[in-house]
Structures are given as C-alpha cells and as structure tokens.
User: Which sequence fits this backbone?
C-alpha cells in the first residue's frame, strides 16, 4: 500500500532498510544469543545521521518528527527489535528535553543526541511503581543550590549504555505525582551507578538496567521545566513515543510475515508446497490484513502527532495497543506456519515472537492503554451529552 511518503521519508526508510539488511540481519541471532549490545550498528546509524531524523534542524536534526522516527524504528524492527529499541530509547530519553527543556538545555544536549555521539534514556519506572507511576519513591531534595537524588529506577532501556538520562523524581513527597519533577542526569555524576544487566525473554540485544541514585548531586540548571511538572513531562513524553512502539510492533510483524511466506513457498508436504493449502493461505491473508491495518493506524497517528495536535493521548495509546496486539498474534501464527522449525532458533520467527511480547508491556501495558482510551472516550462523551 502507498502511504504517500515524502521523498525524504522514502530516503530515510530505504537507507535504514539497506543498513538493516547489511548490518543487522547477519548478526541478529548472535546478538540475541549473547545478549550483546549493538554498539557497532548504532555507530553506523549515527554515522549516516539517523539519530536526528525527528529533531529540529537548529539542534542538528533533519527536521522531521514522529513519522520519521517510526519509519526508522519499523525498518530496524523488521530484522531485530533489540537493535530497534536501543535506537528508539534514545529518542524517548530526549523527548523531555525537546518538549520541556529551556534553550540552553536544548543547545547543550540535543545536538549530541542528534548526532548519536551520546545515547539517551528515560527513567520513570521503579520496583514499586510501574503502571502506577505516581507511586514513585525516588526523591530529589533541593538544598538551595543543587538537587540531591536518592532512589532506584528499574528496567531502564539503554541503562548503563546511555550517557544522558531524563529522570522523574519527587521534589515534594507529600504531593505524590503532583510533587514530581524532571531532571537531566549524566553518566559519571558522583552518586549515580547502575545495577546488573537484566536477562530477558526478548529484545535481548538491548540493555536493561537499574539506575541507582545515592546522594547524587545535580546542578539546579538540570531541572526540566518547572518544579512539580515531572508527571506532566512523563505523560507528554510517552504520548510522543507510543506511536514508536506501534512502529516497532509493525516492523516485527512484517518481519514475521515475510519469513512465513518465504517458508510456506518452499516447504513441501503431501507432495505440494504448504502455501497451496487454503488453511495456510487464510492464515497469511489474516496476518497481512491485520498488519496493514496496524501500519495504517500507526502512520495516521504519527502524522496526527506531527501536525501539532494537542490532545494525542487517546490516539497514541490506540496505535500502541492495536499494533502490539497484532504483532503478537502475527508472530504466533508465523511460528505455527513454520511448524516445528518455527520453534527452533535456526529460524528468526521464535525470536520475533519473544520480541513482540514486550510491545504489549512497556510504555504502559495494554491494559493501561485501554484505560487511557476509555477515560478519554468518557470525557469526550460528557462534552457531547452536556451540549
Ligand atoms: C524490557 C523492559 C524495558 C523497559 N524500559 C523502560 C524504560 O526505558 N524506562 C522506564 O521508565 N520504564 C521501562 N520499563 C518499564 C515498563 O514501562 C513497565 O514494566 C510497565 O509500565 C508495567 O509496569 P510493571 O511491569 O510494574 O507492571 P504492573 O504495573 O505491576 O502491572 C502488572 C499487571 O497488572 C496490570 N495492571 C496494573 N494496574 C492496572 C489497572 N489500573 N487496570 C488494569 N490492569 C492493571 C498490568 O496491565 C499488568 O498486566 C521497561 C520494562 C521492560 C520489561
């Protein structure tokens, strides 16, 4: 289907596709097996300027938006979602600065993120605060000249690998989520260390670590926005990045569909290629239809977000929810089409199935996405019915 991409968007997609074929496909199984961070691949993506596709030109970017970021993420995910999320999590970490940073903060940090010279990461989740992010316990106490951070952030993508971290912490414990603030913390600051690298079901090329703050002093200039705005920073950030999770899911599903078709064409049983069985054809038809619907929704939402629309939570959640559920289903069906071979590591579909699962969990589980969508529907209907 033609989504009428601009010339530059086509170039971005085709360049990513080429790099993915040449650099990611040959090593994805090994990266997964060894749980190895894809440093060399990220270096190549940086070299050709792909880290800055969504950032304004004045900060060294290409001047695109969420749509361009989605195109890169989708293409990388088609081969390896562990690589894709290592790339995309840097954008996630940069959004609080892009959306809420002052000019000085933007000029200082965004060009380095845009060039890929320094990776970013975003730290909201804690051991006791996942879906209920407002229940966070990490504190940032102001002592007149600096903030002192104490606490632990859990399961942070790019943790340990990134150099720039945007962190949400409580500046006023008594106010709960309303007492949260956002900060920029740099790797190497005294009192900032990392926990062990997590061992995961999927996206195993990506690094997931704890961030540990023990009397970590950061200059007051590293506060993002105003004190007390931290929860808003977090919510606006995930609104922007959730279509990207949708794109990740679309890429995984496309990769799995490609593998299933190729396999079904060459696998012979009962004297014929299994693609000649109607049962297989119907599975493929459903997979392709669901995938195209997911892609259409993700692209529409990405464009809607880039239009500057203000209220984007519902649509961002819909893109993430729908595409991730489709990816999970498409991958399970792809494994089924490959039969026993699908269950073996010799073929990439078992990895894709493992990778797909996380898209239903992170940046808010799909139950939470449904809550967000329903809440917005109720709000909108109240407006209609009170007229
Ligand atoms: C690999 C990985 C990478 C991650 N990367 C990052 C990152 O870079 N930065 C970051 O800040 N976080 C990150 N996370 C955290 C992720 O966003 C959280 O795991 C997610 O938000 C869910 O929180 P939880 O795991 O604590 O689940 P919980 O909140 O404990 O939820 C457990 C179950 O209860 C359900 N549930 C909870 N509340 C409700 C409710 N109100 N209604 C209905 N159902 C509910 C959930 O849907 C889920 O099924 C990452 C997680 C993983 C696994």
Assistant:
């Amino acid at each position: 289907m033609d989504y009428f991409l601009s010339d530059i968007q086509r170039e971005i997609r085709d360049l990513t596709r080429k790099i993915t074929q040449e650099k990611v496909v040959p090593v994805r199984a090994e990266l997964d097996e060894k749980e190895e961070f894809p440093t060399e691949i990220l270096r190549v993506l940086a070299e050709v300027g792909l880290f800055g596709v969504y950032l304004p030109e004045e900060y060294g970017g290409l001047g695109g938006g969420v749509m361009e970021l989605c195109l890169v993420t989708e293409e990388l995910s088609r081969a390896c979602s562990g690589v894709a999320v290592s790339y995309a999590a840097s954008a996630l970490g940069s959004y609080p600065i892009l959306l809420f940073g002052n000019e000085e903060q933007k000029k200082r940090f965004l060009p380095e993120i845009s060039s890929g010279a320094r990776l970013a990461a975003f730290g909201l989740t804690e051991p006791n605060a996942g879906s209920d992010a407002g229940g966070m316990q990490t504190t940032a106490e102001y002592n007149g000249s600096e903030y002192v951070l104490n606490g632990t952030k859990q399961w942070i993508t790019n943790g340990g690998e990134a150099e720039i971290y945007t962190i949400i912490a409580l500046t006023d414990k008594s106010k709960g989520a309303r007492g949260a603030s956002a900060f920029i913390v740099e790797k190497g600051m005294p009192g900032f260390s990392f926990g062990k690298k997590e061992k995961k079901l999927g996206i195993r090329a990506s690094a997931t670590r704890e961030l540990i703050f023990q009397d970590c002093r950061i200059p007051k200039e590293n506060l993002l926005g105003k004190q007390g705005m931290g929860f808003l920073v977090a919510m606006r950030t995930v609104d922007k990045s959730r279509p990207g999770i949708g794109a990740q899911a679309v890429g995984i599903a496309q990769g799995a569909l490609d593998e299933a078709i190729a396999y079904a064409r060459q696998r012979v049983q009962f004297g014929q290629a299994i693609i000649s069985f109607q049962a297989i054809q119907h599975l493929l038809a459903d997979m392709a239809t669901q995938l195209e619907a997911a892609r259409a929704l993700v692209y529409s939402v990405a464009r809607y977000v880039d239009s500057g629309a203000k209220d984007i939570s519902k649509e961002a959640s819909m893109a993430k929810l729908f595409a991730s559920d489709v990816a999970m289903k498409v991958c399970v069906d792809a494994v089924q089409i490959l039969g026993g071979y699908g269950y073996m590591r010799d073929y990439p579909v078992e990895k894709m199935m493992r990778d797909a699962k996380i898209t239903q969990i992170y940046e808010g589980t799909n139950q939470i996405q449904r809550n967000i969508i329903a809440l917005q529907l109720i709000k909108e209907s109240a407006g209609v019915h009170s007229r």
